[in-house]
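Handout, section B. The chain below has 232 residues.
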Amino acid sequence: MACKTSFTVVAAIMCMYVCSVNGSAESYYMEDYCTGSVRQIHVGYNGVMLYSQRGAHYENDINCTVTFYTAEGQVPMLISRWINLENSYDCIQLFDGQDTSVLPTVTQCHSDPLRYFSTQRYLTVQMTTDDGVSYDGFRISVIVYGNTGVEDQCDLDAFHCQSSHQCIAMKKVCNNRDDCRNGEDEDIPECDPVESWLYWSGGQVAGLIIGYLIFLITVIAIVVVVNRRCKK
């Protein structure tokens, strides 16, 4: 009985460790939306994560477009987790609304941080690349901003606490302090430090591998010790 309990505890520890690296926001990839037809994705309270691609580098000569939309009275807010584009040649363009035939509201062809509030409930993101060098791409959080009540709207440089109807400064978001009454300023996708290992830098991947190896060796040692005691 004691042996079964020990193995159950070890399995539970492994599950907790592995499961803890999963975020709550659903992930989407720009490389899936290069066929000409524009995909529309609803952004709920948990937000979504938008990656440029699944692999290490994005493709050359692509033109990919996706539209995010929210409920009435809300707008999408876009915040880059990181961006690495070929300067001046590979670009992200943002359009307020669904019409990409007009001039984009934002065009970014460099790797500086990007933060944008849409002025309406639809926000279209377009990624274009040339036939030259390809880079790591980007990871972007798209979250809901605002509420259904007009009186609860905050200024565009503030964060709206939806449950308590507070407006707090954006610098207070993801600062490891609960500035909203229920802590929702620390419980949105861009506050999640965990990123898919496919999109980490070399140093981050090395750290992750070392961490897994240490954890695996520890688990194996526990299993060996438990197994020996069970055989006695």
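Note. The longest helix spans residues 202-231. Compare this with the example in section A.
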